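Q: How would the structure tokens look for this protein?
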Amino acid sequence: MAATAAAAATAAAHTGRVFFFDIDNCLYPSSCGIMLAMGQRIHAYFQRMGFPDEEASELHRKYYTTYGLAVRGLVKHHDVDPIAYDKEVDQSIPLHEYISKDAELRDMLANMKDVKKWAFTNAYKVHANRVLGALGVEDQFAGMTFCDYAIKDFKCKPQEEIYHIAMKAAGVTDPKLCYFVDDSADNVDTAKRLGWTAVHVVGDNGKKGGSKHGDYQISNVKELPSVLPQFWT
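A: Here is the predicted structure in token form.
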């Protein structure tokens, strides 16, 4: 992995460009069921805290909408330990039942030219690394920016602060050199507002023409070469 990361950094040095990749529902299709399984575990977590079914659903929706992640609401309002929460929710998902090594995705990433590839996720690092490993692409990224649950007031997309954190970590200062792909319209909107070139993955059931978010819209991350061919030629 170190050799691959070093090669990626060397190639990117010629252009300074960094391509930020979301992970969940982006590197794999939303139809695989991971997010459904995660949502069920989050709902069960609320219920174990004592919230009845309807209130658990409402709080889950409210916190996700307000803070970008349900766990941020739990931390802010219920003094939940996010790392313990992550072990019980994200880390409990048997990923092998939902995703497997993806040779086509790996080839697409491996064939990118003159750009540093950087994972940029709202997950904690443990879940993110598990997903990258399950897909067989963990060695394709020079680094990762994740929601750091060890920090009390941790940041997450679509907050602008974490985009700046990602830029600093990836070693880029000019937003014009930043490229981004994500399935969340809100996350894409923030990237676009900051001057990044943004691509919205509308998902399996979405219509590319129905999304007005970002500079480009695709149904699947593997369509990236069709909208940004300069990274593969």
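Confidence is low (pLDDT under 50) at residues 6-14.

Residues 34-48 form the longest helix (15 residues).

Upvote if useful.
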